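ok so for the tutorial part 2 we go from a plain amino acid sequence to predicted structure tokens. step 1 is just haveing the sequence, like this:
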Amino acid sequence: MGLDIIIDADRIRKNAERIRAAAADKRLTLMVKADGYNHGAKIVAALTKEYADCFGVATLSEAKELTAAGITLPVTVFSPFPREMPEIVNSGYVPVVHSAECLENLKNAVGATVDIKIDTTMNRLGFRGMAAVKDAARTARELGLNIRSLLTHIPDPARAQKSISLFNIYKGIFEEAFGKRLPGEYAASDGIIRCLGGDGYRIGRLLYSGAMNVYGTVIAKGYLKKGESAGYNGIYTAPFDTVTAIVSGGYYDGVRRDYHGAKLHFKGNTMTIAAVCMDVTIVAEVPPELKVGDTVRLFDGNSEMSVGDANIYETMTSFKGRTRRKYLSNGQIHTEEDYIRTLFETL
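step 2 — the prediction. this is what the tokens look like for a chain of 347 residues:
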């Protein structure tokens, strides 16, 4: 039961090499939050440490996991709880200050190195509006903080210029109130592709592009006559007589229920996900050559499988449950445990 996730370690390393070349001499943060977008944070960090200036995580606990594994590159905590500010600083990490509450918790941290988050069009974390930005700058100056960089997030590449223009206005306001010119980082994966500029890059998706393949195994085959249905509430109705396959891995394992209708491929044939159940996925329009015991690729590292609203980030990070993560390196497949031992012996 469950799924096999095969992570192409060589692909991740090659992606990092290309990103480093595109970033040139600008500060490069490789994002390994959410367990490296479900690729294994410790492994990804070990594979890419020679290309990054620092690693980015969401939480303090994620930062600690990297340190405990032996990663020595600087780590930035992007979504910290305000109350954790002193511990983050004292542990040697760089917190992203995103609210007045974060600043309040740094009142005894003179000289602490931090990044400041300015919200432009994401409306998530960060100081938003001229008054809030000016107040944050004044407070940071009074607290004696060492600001490494001002950050923002571009949520929509199609409206990137609007985000950048607004950020530059806020950046100027902050610098005037703080009394110092500061680097500005606003370009993530789509920014580096489009050369949007900035003084540094935060890269997530591009690092993992094409590295994850997810497979289920055929555990049984069946048959539907035209007009017969399959799945809960008859979610799929056969448009013609069709062979079906029951494939290991269901929504407990991260195969979203709204994947029904998505297309899969097997040796040049196109199949259709008929229904996703808790433990298995029903596939219809199956070619005769697909046998019990064969593997079916459910995700290829790039495609957004869902015919619903799941994006590539959600798809990559959804596969959990009874999944088994393995790593492809130099043509050999390793278990996660063996590959961790191999990598960290060289750290």
